[in-house]
Specification:
Elements (H helix, E strand, L loop, with lengths): L5 E3 L10 E6 L4 H10 L4 E5 L2 H10 L4 E4 L15 H4 L8 E5 L3 H7 L3 E7 L4 H15 L3 E5 L11 H13 L5 H13 L18 H6 L6 E10 L2 E10 L16
Parallel strand pairs: 1-7, 2-6, 2-7, 3-5, 4-5
Antiparallel strand pairs: 3-9, 6-8, 8-9
Helix pairs in contact: 5-6, 6-7
Length: 256
């Protein structure tokens, strides 16, 4: 296989991402997006601000709004940022407009990318496969863009872990399934503090298994930059794929 150059850029360096950029948000924006597409959503528009979301719904009155501020439902929005709730939502054939604090920001800010893909653990293998195809066809590098912001408690975020898995898949590492198992085990050890208080609307306990259900979906999510009345947004669509030689996965990692 032709060598593919892999780069990384963090949230604050999204503008430096180029080539085939994979924007990663595991908890929870792009897990929500994947479940929306699995539920039949036709398109998802990614925006940076709530004002942009409301303005774009003025353009498309039938659109549904999804997202969060501080992890919580935004007043006037139809859905919060819960993949468990999105998995049950009646979104077939609908346009969603999504605003979150990390993932949608990173996608819109990655302005110099030739190709833009959005990803979480639930569609990692499909995304790695599609990104590799695009990179091989064009000779472009792949930029991995984790949007999680590390701190002293978590110097490596769930998005960094997803990037590790993507890189292992793209480079054909035989230990990719074991690397995934290791990263998921580390996440289970304490990356879900909001959920420890019990089940509630914005942080339902079922979200944990939805987020960690790696390779649940065999589609990529491809985005293109759009402009309308001074608003820059990313329009994401589902790209269905046939994945050859999927890596074996430990069934204990799946919730279903």
């Amino acid at each position: 296989m032709k060598h593919i150059h892999i780069l990384r850029a963090g949230f604050l360096r999204a503008g430096e991402a180029h080539g085939v950029t994979i924007v990663i948000d595991v908890i929870r924006a792009f897990t929500v997006a994947a479940y929306a597409f699995a539920g039949g959503a036709s398109r998802i528009w990614l925006v940076r601000t709530t004002d942009e979301a409301f303005a774009l719904r003025g353009r498309e009155p039938e659109a549904l709004l999804a997202g969060e501020i501080g992890g919580r439902l935004i007043p006037g929005f139809d859905f919060n940022n819960s993949p468990a709730l999105m998995a049950k939502a009646p979104v077939a054939g609908r346009l969603l407009i999504q605003r979150t604090g990390a993932g949608t920001q990173g996608a819109v800010n990655a302005a110099h990318s030739r190709y833009l893909l959005i990803c979480s653990l639930v569609n990692a293998t499909a995304t790695a496969h599609y990104a590799s195809m695009l990179a091989a066809e064009t000779g472009e590098p792949i930029t991995l863009l984790p949007t999680g912001r590390p701190d002293e408690t978590f110097p490596e975020t769930e998005d960094d872990f997803c990037a590790d898995y993507l890189e292992a898949l793209i480079t054909g590492r035989e230990d990719a399934p074991q690397l995934l198992a290791d990263r998921i085990a580390r996440l289970r050890q304490g990356r879900f503090p909001q959920w420890e208080q019990g089940n509630e609307q914005d942080f339902p306990f079922e979200d944990i298994e939805k987020v960690l259900n790696a390779d649940r979906f065999h589609f990529a999510m491809a985005g293109t930059r759009q402009e309308w009345h001074g608003i820059t947004y990313v329009e994401a669509k589902r790209v269905d794929l046939v994945i050859p030689h999927k890596p074996a996965r430990d069934s204990s990692l799946r919730s279903e």
